[in-house]
Amino acid sequence: NNSIRLRRNDRKILKIIQCKSPKVVLLENVPGILQINNKGFIKKIIEFLQENNYDADYKIINGLYFVPQNRRRVYIIGIKRNSTNAHKKQVSQILQDVTKDKKLVAVSSKFYKRESSTHIKVYTGYCYTLTASMYLSGSLPYVNDNGDFRKLTIRECARLMGLPDDFHFPINDKDAYRLIGNSVIVPVIKEIANILISNKYL
Q1: 98, 106, 97: which is closest to 187 by C-alpha?
Q2: Which residues does 91 contact at the CB level (< 8 Å), separation at least 6?
Q3: What percent of the chain is predicted at pLDDT more than 90?
Q4: pLDDT tens-digit series, residues 64-92
Q5: Of 162, 151, 152, 157, nearest to 179 (Cα)?
Q6: Average confidence score pLDDT of the chain
């Protein structure tokens, strides 16, 4: 679909890939890029990787297999061709292996989302997707803390992304919440990296 135009930042990323030619490319984006109006976007990315000598594929992976947050994201992997290892897995199999034999994470907590002035939705056992605009839009999750309802702290949101407690945000609260909402589920990336390493792609 020639009507699909890549954003400036997308073009920059592809330019870096073309110039640096890394062994492995890992990209992450929202599931909206797979919707009918954006179908050409993912096609352009995959075609670009293939034209630059990568075997490439994509899959939606839910972070809920790793942390108690329902966070579906599209993961795109490209692996440079000319491999000398005959036992290396296909890219699609690597993506399948990320959640293989894993169960969805559940916790005892309940998370509350204010959807309107009169309606609050309850999520039991997991949190809904954290977003970059949650601080300003009023969509920050609430929890019941000994009978008092309060918003999740920056540290609690960071934990829902799989960030360790020694990871600090030397910025104001607004920017910290925005960065967290724009981040990736760290254990998902770690699992992908471990699979790539075990198959000698890295």
Answers
A1: 98
A2: 55, 56, 57, 77, 78, 79
A3: 75
A4: 999 999 999 999 999 998 755 545 678 99
A5: 157
A6: 91
- 24 strand-pairing partners: 79
Give the three-class secondary structure for 101.
Answer: coil
How far apart CA 95 and CA 30 sit, in angstroms, is 16
Rg (CA), the chain: 19
The C-alpha torsion from 132 through 137 and 139 to 144, rounded to 10°, is 120
Cβ–Cβ under 8 Å, residues 157 and 165 = no
Nearest to 120 by CA among 101, 90, 145, 140: 140
Tokens found for residue 144: 């019941």
How would DSSP label each residue in 123-181? EESSBPPP-TTHHHHT---EEEETTEEEEPPHHHHHHHTT--TT----S-HHHHHHHHH
pTM over 0.85: yes
Tokens 């997707």 belong to 129
